Each structure stands twice: as C-alpha cells, then as structure tokens.
C-alpha cells in the first residue's frame, strides 16, 4: 500500500486551487444535493430531479477532476499507481491528496465546483427522451446523509422534501426499468465497524435504506449513458464488465439448490437468478441469497466491452467516482475528448492494473473486518453462537455467523464420525442453509481465522428467523 504522499506531491497539490472555468456553464441556481454516508468526505456526485407532466428532468453532476489534474502530471501518475482510494474503518488512503479529494474537487456544500453534468429527460415508462452532457459550475445546496434522506421523504415540512420526493419518484421509474430488463436484485448483508471511546468498537449491520438505492440507480443510469456514447462513437475507453457465472459454478449451484427442492433452473439468464431469489424469499430461505451471490463472476475492467450480467446491461462503464477511482478519471478524459473534439489522446490500457488494485482494496477491507471481529470476540468472551451452514467440503463445514461478520470452519477431525457422501455426523444430517449453534474452538486474532466445534442443528431456518 502507498501510505501518505511525497513532499513534492503534497506541495503540488496545495498549489491546486479553484479557478472558475470560462467554458463551464453556470448551473449554480439548480439546487443540487449530495447524498452520502455519515463519514464521507470526498463527494464525487450531486443530484437533482424535477417531475413534469409526462417526464422527469434529471441532472447528475460528477466532479470534473480532469479539469484540475493534467494527464501524466506527477499527481496524476501517483493516482494511477494507487488505482483507487483505500477505505478503512477509521481512515482513508485517498487516491489524491486531501486538498484535491476533500476540497477542490469535492462537491462540498455552498461552494462553486466544476462538474461534468449529465442532463436527462426521462419518460415515466423509463425510456430516455434525450440527454445532454456539459461541463458546468454547480453549487451543492446541502450535504445530506442516507439516513437524513429517508427521514426527509416522510417530512413534508423539510425544505428539501420536494426534491427528495422527485428523486424517489425517479428511483421508482428506474427500478421498474431495471426489473423489466432483468437486473439481479441481491440483498446486502454487510457490517460496518463503529468506533467508540478508548479505541473500542462495535459491529453494526448496514441498514437497508431506500436512499442507497436512489443513488445507485441514478449512478447506473449515468454510467450506462456514457458507455453507450463510446459504443456509438466507436472510441476506446475502459469498460466495466461482468460476465455470467462459469459452467463449473452453475453446475455446483444447481446441485446445491436441488438439495433444497428448488425447481430446476438453467441459471444462464438473469431471470433464473431473480426467480430463485423470489422463491427463496417466499420460503424464508434467506441464505440462498449468499449462495447465489457467491456463484457470480467478479466484475473487472477491460478495453473490450462485454456488458454487465448482474445489471442486465449491454454497455457499462465507471464514470461517477473520479475522485476515488482512476478508471472513472480515464473515462472522463476519453469522454471529453469525444464531446469537445480535443486533440486525440493515445489510449493506454491499464485496465488489468486497475482490476488488481480493486481486488487488493476488497481483500484488505475483508481482512480488516475478519481480524477486527476476531479481536472483538476475544473481548466479549461469548461462548455460544448461532449461524447458517453455507458450505460443506470433504474437510469440514463452513458456518456463517448471523450476529457478527465472521465465518467459522468446523473441521472433520473434530467429529468422531463423518460420512461425506451422506453429509452426516453422528446421525445428524448437515445441509447448506441449516441453522446451527456452535462454539469457538480456536480464534486467531492475527489472521482472523476461526475454528468451530460442537456444532448442533437447532431447527429449520425459515422457522427460526423471526
């Protein structure tokens, strides 16, 4: 990891200042707002929507980082090496120094900021009437959090109520469009670490707020529009691809689901995954969501466009987060070259490097959560845990804990008798999705790995969960 910035980079970053661009349109009268997490500092995007009689007018404003950061400059080269910002529970290793990421480029409230704005007229059936992309100066009228937005939606007295209502209306239209085309609707089951006094911390399940989905759908819309411009113009950029699951994963998935008497599905299309998710929700088999999620291929960056299976889109890229993802900055530069007929840039394909950096960030985040949970479990000294079996191998059983973000392995050698073909131990038949009680045998705080013992089936999951 590249921790901190060199003295030279910091000195150069302090010289970057906001100077009002002459060629940017003035949109400071539009009441844009940013909607982000409680602890966010780098605001890449701001949104606005207005409902008319037969359509919805939308604006998605994205920080115009390329206006301030010259390609191949020392600051740009450092950002390219990093590939993306790295987020930790108590700090961030930003792609750019703070004066750029948290100030000059960040869409902070009540400050004029340079943006690339996508202006969209959307019919209420989800079809796009027209769109226009422009460079503009905007002013965020408020820095809102996801929690605040959900509350504002039910408070007509709030001064941002009408705007939030229009954004939720936009989300409803886009959600129906996404559902029609086949976007796979997985549930999120993520935990966050909340620090308290004396460096103590607790784990909290992330709330499933509607405002998350509002922003998600708006960003997907913007990314899709930009990707289609490159396809239409036959120009190079870096696309965000997500392929369908491999044949091997589909075979294993069908075998697992057939064990639960699911109707045989081919899983070659998004509709099969959505059907399985719908069946699992009706039957109370919530664990199926994670099994289906694990079967998915990993998304990646590539020069060649291959579409996005999970989103059910033929064309997709990353455009909406240029402060924290270098891929998006590349796409900005490529897009502006097309729109404003700039001098043709030499396309440098660093997609493999960016994919590797993203994987590194994901690995670090996962590893930190595992190790933090391991330390936390040592402190609370809880003895009995409840979890769901989410994997069975010849060497043991994997259990996903319900109340804390860790998985434990119960090794075969800890049981006096194990019949792998029948998947049973001492006359107890184990299946994926079963609810079990277990104790921790070994907790390694250095790598976050946990071994379980005394695994006991409680009862069927669908009866227990409430």
Please give a quick description of this structure.
This protein has 466 residues and is α+β, with helices and mostly antiparallel strands.
Detailed description of the structure:
By secondary structure, the chain is of the alpha+beta class. Helices cover 35% and strands 24% of the residues. The strands form seven sheets. A five-stranded mixed beta sheet has the order 1-8-7-4-3. A five-stranded antiparallel beta sheet has the order 16-15-14-20-21, with helices on one face. A three-stranded antiparallel beta sheet has the order 17-18-19, with no helix packed on it. The longest helix is centred in the C-terminal third of the chain and has 30 residues, at 351-380.
Show the helix and strand layout.
Layout: H1 7-14, E1 25-26, E2 34-36, E3 45-51, E4 55-63, H2 65-68, H3 74-82, E5 86-87, E6 92-93, H4 98-104, E7 112-123, E8 128-139, E9 143-145, H5 146-152, H6 161-181, E10 191-195, E11 201-205, H7 210-233, E12 239-241, H8 247-259, H9 270-283, H10 288-294, E13 300-302, H11 326-339, H12 351-380, E14 384-393, E15 396-401, E16 407-411, E17 418-419, E18 424-425, E19 428-429, E20 435-443, E21 450-457, H13 461-464
Which strand order does the major sheet show?
Answer: 1-8-7-4-3
Radius of gyration: 24 Å
Task: Supply the number of structural domains.
Answer: 3
Shape: globular
Structural class: alpha+beta
Largest sheet: 5 strands, mixed
Query: Distance N terminus to C terminus?
Result: 43 Å
* Approximate helicity band: 25-40%
Topology, number of strands: 21
Mean residue pLDDT: 89
Strand content: 15-25%
Report the uncertain regions: 416-423, 460-466
Number of helices: 13
């Amino acid at each position: 990891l590249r921790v901190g910035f060199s003295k030279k980079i910091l000195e150069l970053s302090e010289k970057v200042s906001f100077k009002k661009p002459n060629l940017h349109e003035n949109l400071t009268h539009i009441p844009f707002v940013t909607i982000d997490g409680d602890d966010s500092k780098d605001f890449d995007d701001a949104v606005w929507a207005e409902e008319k009689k037969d359509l919805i007018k939308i604006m998605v404003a994205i920080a115009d980082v390329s206006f301030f950061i010259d390609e191949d400059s020392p600051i740009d080269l450092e950002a390219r090496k990093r590939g993306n910002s790295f987020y930790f529970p108590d700090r961030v290793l930003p792609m750019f120094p703070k004066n750029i990421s948290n100030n000059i480029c960040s869409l902070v409230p009540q400050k004029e900021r340079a943006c690339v704005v996508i202006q969209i007229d959307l019919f209420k059936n989800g079809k796009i009437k027209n769109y226009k992309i422009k460079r503009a100066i905007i002013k965020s009228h408020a820095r809102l959090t996801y929690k605040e937005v959900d509350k504002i939606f039910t408070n007509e007295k709030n001064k941002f109520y009408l705007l939030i209502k229009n954004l939720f209306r936009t989300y409803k239209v886009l959600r129906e469009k996404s559902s029609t085309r086949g976007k796979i609707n997985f549930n999120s089951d993520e935990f966050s670490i909340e620090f308290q006094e004396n460096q103590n911390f607790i784990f909290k399940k992330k709330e499933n707020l509607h405002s998350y989905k509002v922003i998600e759908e708006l960003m997907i819309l913007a990314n899709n529009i930009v990707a289609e411009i490159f396809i239409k113009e036959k120009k190079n950029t870096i696309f965000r691809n997500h392929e369908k699951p491999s044949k091997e994963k589909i075979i294993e998935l069908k075998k697992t689901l057939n064990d639960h008497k699911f109707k045989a599905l081919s899983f070659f299309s998004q509709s099969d995954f959505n059907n399985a998710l719908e069946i699992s929700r009706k039957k109370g088999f919530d664990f199926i969501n994670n099994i289906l999620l694990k079967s998915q291929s990993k998304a990646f960056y590539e020069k060649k466009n291959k579409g996005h299976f999970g989103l059910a889109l033929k064309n997709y890229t990353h455009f909406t987060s240029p402060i924290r993802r270098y891929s998006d900055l590349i796409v900005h530069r490529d897009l502006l070259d097309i729109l404003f007929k700039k001098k043709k840039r030499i396309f440098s394909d660093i997609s493999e490097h960016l994919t590797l950096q993203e994987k590194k960030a994901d690995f670090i985040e996962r590893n930190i959560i595992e190790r933090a949970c391991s330390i936390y479990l040592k402190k609370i000294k809880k003895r009995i845990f409840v979890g769901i079996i989410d994997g069975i191998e010849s060497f043991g059983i994997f259990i996903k804990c319900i109340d804390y973000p860790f998985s434990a392995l119960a090794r075969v050698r800890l049981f006096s008798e194990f019949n792998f073909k029948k998947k049973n131990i001492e006359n107890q038949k184990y299946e994926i999705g079963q609810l079990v009680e277990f104790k921790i045998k070994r907790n390694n705080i250095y790598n976050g790995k946990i071994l379980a013992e005394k695994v006991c089936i409680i009862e069927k999951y669908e009866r227990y969960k409430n």
